[in-house]
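Quick one: co-fold with guanosine-5'-triphosphate.
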Amino acid sequence: MLELALVGAPNSGKSTFFKAATLKDVKIAPYPFTTLEPNEGLAYVTAKCVCAELGTKCIHCIDNVRFVPVKLWDVAGLVPEAHLGKGRGNEFLTDVMKASGFIQIVDASGRTDSEGNPSQEFDPSKTVGMLEKELDYWLLSLIKKDWRAIQQDADFSKTIAARLSGLGFSEGVVKRTAEKLGAGKGSEDLLLLDFLSALRKQAKPAVIAANKCDVRGARSNLEKMRSEFSEYPAIPTSAEIELALKEASKEEMIEYTPGNSSIKIISEDKMNQKQKFAVSFMSEFLKEHGSTGVQQCLNTLVFELLDMIVVYPVADVHKFTDKHGNVLPDAYLMKKGSTALDLAFAIHQDFGHKFIAAVDARTGRNVSANYVLQNNDVLSIKSGK
Ligand SMILES: Nc1nc2c(ncn2[C@@H]2O[C@H](COP(=O)(O)OP(=O)(O)OP(=O)(O)O)[C@@H](O)[C@H]2O)c(=O)[nH]1
Ligand SMILES: [Mg+2]
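Sure, here it is.
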């Protein structure tokens, strides 16, 4: 399953974002280093389900919105000089670096500094710079010792990729970055840190969740982050509002679908004055920003930066069901350019090894192993015994 990680300074709202996205009950508190052990849970990206188009109905979508699971990590916050052992965040960078992409949770309100302590008018762009530096220095610590030898290695990309293979840095991505920067044999002048930084950006795409945008003053900080770090999409976010909306929806006070720009009040009489005020404040936020930003961060990272598409494997190509009669039981996230054979392997190693063909449920035609998957494909994989 696709893995994503939340990275950020302490007290920025990582666990609030995590709880809002996964509904796992984790500790949230207004001081640094609340989270010490990593939290791991299921979050969802949303896509238009194919069931309506196919003239059928599945039980996995709400109003034709399909929720596709991804694994999400929430770890201890990173502080300046984490690479020298400060704080706790550095201990979990292996978990973080294994993820395919990051959501950088930044307190955009300027009310906490890069160490997670209360502040007034702190510039959150500094925190983004700090996070980048700590991630890059951590990578540096893995390679630094042998850099001179590696740089002279004829198999430069292969060697770097092998060093970082457990963290999902493929040879292809290392090669592309090396070619772009002219790194490799004979390029002694290239700074290792610049190379690793470019490699991280290429291999581990990130969005910035400009969190706490419900606090006055966040807007100008968001604009500053956007201009200073234009390579990352920065999304105005309120993890706290997303969490409150999900909880109110669970209590059946309101109707709310994650990612939506509005909420529907179900039973006003169930709410006290304070709750009514909160709902109206949250509705205003949604009106101004289009959403709470939580779903948008997940979707932007997965569909735009990681280039994923959604594919539906089925057993029965006429009824679009599995062998138990469940309609469109699974939705898989696959990298654009993946083939029918890649999908077979993603379902089960055996399916991949014994692949015979795949049937496109829309046309009823067989497609071969190297057929390039299209978004919303509904396929049945045929494999040998
Ligand atoms: N106003 C506002 N406050 C928020 C938001 N998200 C989180 N907070 C508050 O920020 C504080 C820290 O939240 P946490 O989720 O514990 O932060 P964290 O990044 O996990 O902190 P550590 O585990 O210490 O690294 C809590 O008081 C939250 O209620 C938000 O969107 N808006
Ligand atoms: Mg936390």
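If it helps, The chain has a mean pLDDT of 90.
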